[in-house]
Here is the input.
Amino acid sequence: MKITSYSAPLKRGALAACMVVLLATPFVSASEESQRTLDDMVITASKRESSLDDFAGSISVKDGQFITDHEIKDLSELTLFIPNVYFKKTTSGDAFVSRGISTIDTSLFSPMGLYINDVSYPLSFMQNQLLTDVKRVEVLRGPQGTLYGRNSESGVINVVLEEPGDKLKATAGLSAGNYNTWCGEASVSGPVVKDTLYLGLSVTGRKTDGFIENEVTGKDDVADEETTAARGTLRWTPGERFELVATLDGLDQDKGISTLRLEDGPQASDRHKVRSSEEDRAEEEEVGGVIKMNWRADNAKFTSITSNRQFTREFTHDFDRTPAKLGTTDLDIDQDNWSQEFRIASEGEAPLSWLVGLFGFTEDLDTTMALNHVNPAMAKDRVTDSENDGYAIFGQATYRLTDKLKLTGGLRGEHATAEGTQTFTSIMGPVTFDEKLSETEWLPMASASYEIADNLTAYATCARGWLAGGFNYFSANSEETFGYDPEYTVNYETGLKATFFDRRLKADFSLFYIDIDDKQVREEVPGGGQGIWKFSNAGKAHSQGVELDLTALPLGNLEVFAGVGLSDTEIDTWQGTTGGMPFDYSGNSLPWAPEFTWNAGAAYYMTNGLYGIADVTGAGKQYFDAANTLKDDGYALVNLKMGYALGRFDISVYCKNIFDEEYATKKVKNMQGFTMVEDGEPLTFGLTLNWRL
Here is the structure.
């Protein structure tokens, strides 16, 4: 790992302070501590309350306390602690990458699903959600279409929020850090009418100047951010069998997105410094409403979830990212999504447990993209109106054949349609093209688990995955380059779940192999010119690897964890063009797929309230293009935290990326063949004060 020397005394002081306070934490013997064990967690990843140990699949769970302890503010930071899950965080679109399965760059939909309190957040720009008032986050790897309403090809991130109840609860937190960073959050929940009506409210605000400086304008806040998010929840339980939960949430975000710099060429600049002639900005607004009803019979629970989510994003950025005033690219996205899910699931102890669900959605998605260039021959404009609809029936059943052997089978049937119209205007004038897509898919799964011993369970599973086709909103120039078809996967997995030393060590291990057919890829359009691409189903590929999650309590007050994910991806067949020349991509790695991800850490909590936390997260080599010419060699980020909990208060100091590790989150070639790069975050530090009722 490369360690950068610091020239700024402030950075040296912050690093020294973090290391001293952590190393100064006194350790006590095990005899002085209460003997704790790793309790089996209750999860709802299978849409029924069940044991984490009994889940026959690769799953990682982080609770709200872990999120608070490690200063995790959003989902991109959480994925650093999840094996084989990587968050692609770029100005061109966010996306989760699970087991090497990534989406097309600039695609609006991710192969990995995100659910917050049972509601899908389908757009990639939605997926880096703030984590406030979170009970736990469950990360499932592999297809989950037989359990969740909206289809997910590579996995699901299931965020479970705290719900109001009879007990009055309240929290508040405030943190301040370098780069003029401030973050505040507060929540309160409790009864309005005892045993019947409950209310919960939460609000989060975040502000930062960011760490990017524009050498042309001299401004050091060109990647600033101001975000406000709020949520209100009303829960009504008029009887023992019926429950209604209504939620309304919203988010408003204004941020600078001037993060791409040239790494080479005459306009090259150093890390975290850009040379743009424009003020690149993005504004996002998101509003959602959910009505969820639960009704319990003697041995089953019926659930209805009705939701609406509206999302808009407007942004503008410098066309060429140089001091020359050549023009801007302006983009507007407007989505309105309605969904309805009905499901019924068994409850109680019985040899057979089951779930059956119906799901439907309708989605209006409109985009406008304008390239405003000083040269009229380069100017282009795209206006796209589209409607996506989907209907699915899904279900899964598990039968306990013996005391030790359980068999599970599931099936999803889905019909999806999409209609899109795009008007493309260039110097040649406007041209309008239409596309209609219609797909019906059946996605089976089967698994078996066997309890080898009281503390050791083995499982194996096979499932078919599917990622729907769609439209090329931002780079098409004809009907032939506008639409693309689905991609398919067949996923094989086997694993072991074990506990040792009277539940003071827990280990989860899995092996997987994934066949990918009709891989959705982005290709050059011969003679199309700058900014013209097509999305094709040209690729066949595979991904294989391992995952290991470890948690241990070597001493009563000492917690240790580690995780590693290895993912070897390879393109089996795909022939296209690069720079106008024929190119065979076979044998290359898939883009946006790190070879491995890993994390490790320790937390020590003293009986007098002092605590120290240290962790390291890392990723291996990854490529940013299918030709494997643009890459990052990998990185390791070391983080430290020291705090003191006194009664209802907790005060702490933290440092993230204390060695100021250099790494890239994106690389891309411009039209002159020079490399543009987005840099990862530098060293950050701050002070946090939390209060809990």
